[in-house]
Amino acid sequence: MSRILIVEDEERISSFVAKGLRAEGFTPTVVADGLTGLDYALTGEFDLMILDIGLPGIDGFSVLERVSKDRPALPVIVLTARDSVTDTVTALEGGAADYMSKPFRFGELLARVRLRLRAPSGGQPLAENLASGTVRLNLRSRRAHVGQDEVELSAREFALAEVLLVNRGQVLSREQLLSQVWGYDFDPGSNIVDVYIGYLRKKLGTEFVATVRGMGYRVE
Fold it and tell me: Is the pTM of this model over 0.70?
């Protein structure tokens, strides 16, 4: 069971991320300031860190600098409202394994967490493709193919297909898909999951995802 350190000062977001990770079998620990986050990260007790940049105490860039120097094997995913190219480049060149800007979809964050945890010692991932039958997604280029043909998916369609493929063989309820793909502002009464499943079937083939009556959807 992987242990994940979440360094985030906005309680609504840290609670949302921790709840989602716990539901997926991870063991999250939340701290709300940079100094405490750095202390925890340097203990060596965590397998991955999710790090905000705008933190009280010391900012995320300073935390990242120390962690990269003293715990270089710890993969760090930066999750921040700062989405400039300068910030992204600074974080990646500073040692972050990945960078996501807010608002974000939990499903995409989860996929990136799993991808980084499969990487040896926080380095390059072992695999960046997800596949089922003739459907293949490349997580790095964000491209989808059916057989040899590239298929254009919207960002939301790609995220939904990604979550289904990451959890291949498992039945995912509409509520799980809403939470993971549409994020913490989703409407639990919405039928938007069914609508987007229809979009995926049109683009990726009707056999791509099966309906499990009364339970949800599954990709084999």
Answer: no
